[in-house]
Amino acid sequence: MKIKFKDKRLQGIKEKVDAASRLNEEDGRLLYEGNDIVGIGSLADQVRRNRHGDNAYFVYNQHINYTNICINRCRFCAYSRSAGEEGAFLLSPDDVRAALESRNREPITEIHMVGGLHPSLPFDYYLELLDTIHGIRPNATIKAFTAVEIDYLARLYGRSLEETISCLKAAGLGLIPGGGAEVMSDRIRQALFPKKIGKERWLEVMAALHAAGLKSNATMLYGHIETIEERVAHLIELRKLQDKTGGFSAFIPLAFHSENTELSDIPATTAYDDLKNVAIARLMLDNFDHIKAYWVMIGEKLAQAALSFGADDLDGTIMEEKITHMAGAKSAKGLTYAQMKELVEAAGYIPIERDSFYQPVDHGC
Ligand code: V47
Ligand code: SF4
User: Fold this and answer.
1) Rounded distance, CA 10 to CA 6, Å?
2) What is the mean pLDDT of the chain?
3) CA 25 – CA 1 distance, rounded (Å)
4) Domain containing 350: what range?
5) Looking at the domain assignment, is residue 8 inside a domain?
6) Does residue 9 lie in a domain region?
7) CA distance 231 to 160
8) Residue 360 C-alpha to ligand 2 middle, in angstroms?
């Protein structure tokens, strides 16, 4: 396919993309530095179409946040509270049961559950959460606990990573969400999330999860203090681990929202940067099948446009999102099945309801 680039330097990148030859650090920098958004988007769309044609995926899912009590208190997080602070919450397994039962007429196939690092819950609490969800939704995949939470559980309860993962898996854990790596840079970690695990441990936990047969996603939180070089290095680290394990399913760029955080003077990301992050992920992460446009963070309308800039997935119905809305997100808190389908169709794509492993779902109706 011929593309007329405004930025002629993209021609060299197109030649590599056409030859299925891997983009390097310098290519990544050039893509981020340039301003030919249509050129970058067209290249990403070419790769996306080769993999997925006109298909665009979404999942019928429900988010549960079991606690916002967290000992890490990352500077970019509006969601977390310290124990005893106003606004702190902790759901009991019965509360989780009630949240799931309030939706029990809907054919939900995935429960997405994450929380803060609570200082004092017994390990059995986490097993009970999984057991409760499994009891109510035996056919749904439980996508829960980021690499940060899994590392924490292993350390807090004195078990090895492998033993911790094995217990959680036996209790019903089916897939791991991508959060927690933020941007893999010691500089940014020191400045924004000094108590959170660093790059090496995040990658180690992900590798252990993949070795245990669990798939995971990966994310990058952008739009705060990170440089272009740090974004590119982050993508390359993910790509390297994916070469080794093949365990990543989707990559999700996460647009930073600053309201109610210590970084509230940082302006919202632009649509331009949001689309660029989707497109560049598609081009750099040549070994990732799926690039998600997370409508919660970039808005429903831009997520539709992102389907033509490299994304093939819109995440899902979600029901009630907290992390981004506490930081000022203006998107809906959840969407219906019909709205998800309509978003995809109105953008000119074929809506495919998928399960957590990108298999088409047929509700038989
Ligand atoms: O790791 C926290 C991010 C992540 C803010 O795997 C913020 O399918 C923006 O990982 N502004 C958790 N982002 C969410 C997450 C996720 C979401 C949707 C789908 C999947 C998936 C994973 O949320 C955290 C952090 O990077 N986050 N605060 C904020 N103020
Ligand atoms: Fe805790 Fe996660 Fe918020 Fe950091 S981003 S403070 S680890 S809930």
Assistant:
1) 8
2) 97
3) 25
4) 55-354
5) no
6) no
7) 31
8) 33
CATH number at residue 180: 3.20.20.70
- By most ligand atoms within 8 Å of CB, the mutation choice from 70, 182, 192 for ligand 2 is 70
**Res. 48 pLDDT band, cuts 50 70 90:** very high
Which of 148, 149, 153, 263 has most ligand 2 atoms within 8 Å of its beta carbon, as the pocket-test mutant?
A: 148
To the nearest 10 degrees (0 to 180), the angle between helices 228-245 and 25-33 is 140
Rounded Cα–Cα distance for residues 97 and 135 (Å): 9
In a domain, 2, yes or no: no
What confidence score (pLDDT) does residue 1 get?
80
Q: How far is CA 345 from CA 42, 124, 223, 304, in A?
A: 20, 44, 29, 9
CA triple 352-56-245, angle to 5 deg: 95
Q: pLDDT tens across 125-151, in order?
A: 999 999 999 999 999 999 999 999 999
> Rounded CA gap, 269 and 73, in Å?
22
Q: How far is ligand 2, taken at its centre, from the CA of residue 324, in Å?
A: 12
Q: What integer pLDDT is reported at residue 365 of this predicted model?
A: 53
| C-alpha–C-alpha distance, residues 164 and 266, integer Å | 38
How many domains is the chain partitioned into structurally? 1
| Whether residue 274 has pLDDT greater than 80 | yes
Strand stretches in the chain, DSSP E = 55-59, 61-65, 110-114, 141-144, 173-176, 215-222, 248-255, 290-291, 313-316, 350-354
Residues facing 90 on adjacent strands: 67
Instruction: Find all residues with CB under 8 Å of 127, minimum gap 6, and list them.
Output: 167, 168, 171
32 within a domain of the structure (yes/no)? no
